[in-house]
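Weekly structure sync, notes
Attendees: PL (lead), two postdocs, one rotation student
Agenda item 3: pending single-chain targets
PL asked that the sequence for the first pending target be pasted directly into the notes so everyone works from the same version. It is reproduced below exactly as submitted, 258 residues in total.
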Amino acid sequence: MTNLEPARDDRDLPTRIARELLAYIRGKKLGVGDRLPPQMVLAEQLNVSRTSLREALARLETEGLIQQMHGVGTFVADDPQSIYSSADISLSMSEIIKVKGMEPGTSEVAVSHATADTVSPKIAASLQVSGSDPLLCITRVRTADRVPFAYLIAYVVADLPGLVEDPEAYRGSIYEYLQESCHEFIGEVDATIEAYVPNETIRQKLNVPAGTPLLALHQCHRNTKGRPIAASVGYLVQNQFKLRVERRRSGDEFLREE
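Predicted structure, written out during the meeting:
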């Protein structure tokens, strides 16, 4: 199953309607198995056409969040509070949260200086830096509807024109900041994800009990020319983030097996 495509603006009407539907489900505190109002009623409440509503519902059904039963109705099929991402994790955290109809935020942000020889070898290698090459370290606590969702540590190469040290510049999407202020568009992301038991610092940042398992998302962010611009690790609250993987096999493989 595929993830909802992020809207670049509100001209993507079905995506906007899908977000409003998710907000409706959360606002009504509907759970798995609960029935949504008929399409005619929903269309009137959201002030949209039934055609656009049906397309939005189809997207949510593909995502696995609702189930439509012909002649019966539309039902909540999964926890609407969960935040999903596909295995192709090329979205920023802000985009992932927005796609699910939640409001992204930042409760804490700090900026400091670092050099290649003071970060982990994995970070230095992914950024292709060494020795005293300067980096800007940005640490943040991201929230979804004001609830702590992820603790993020990002290292950005420090030679980008327009890069500033003001923490307030990084309260929103770092992707958007890099594009608007540094004219660097992130075109490719390599990501790995693994289980992680947080230390005391991260546990307090995310307000989770001791021993709570998190997901550690390691990413290298490259611009459209393939240059590594940033490397990051995000510690995600596991019960709020789910990873969906779609596996495919080519037709050639099936033919070889026959």
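Discussion points:
- The domain at 83-244 is CATH 3.40.1410.10 (Chorismate lyase).
- The helical segments are 13-27, 39-46, 50-63, 93-99, 121-127, 174-181, 200-206, 251-257.
Action: rotation student to compare against the earlier draft before next sync.
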